[in-house]
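seq:
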Amino acid sequence: MLNFIFEALLLATVSWFYHTILKDDLLSKWFLFGYDHFGQYEDTWKEYVYKPVWGCQYCTSGQFALWSYLYFNEDYQLFYHIAFITLTTIFTKIIWKYLEQ
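struct:
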């Protein structure tokens, strides 16, 4: 269980790092590309591509958790998968609240 929590915290930290440090420096062209091609089109299918990859830190951490759970765990359990996504998103919210003041 401690490993479960640590992995969720790790993914939340990676999501914060991706959306703050890397967005401004190393990946600025990547985020500009995403906004130019997907971010300007609200209420279309492109918005559903934009948010999980570039636009929403909580959506990105949820996507990280969604796909990473399948890699981290050998035996799949739906309840724990949903809990892992939720815990990662909650940790992301906590990290953003305390580091972005």
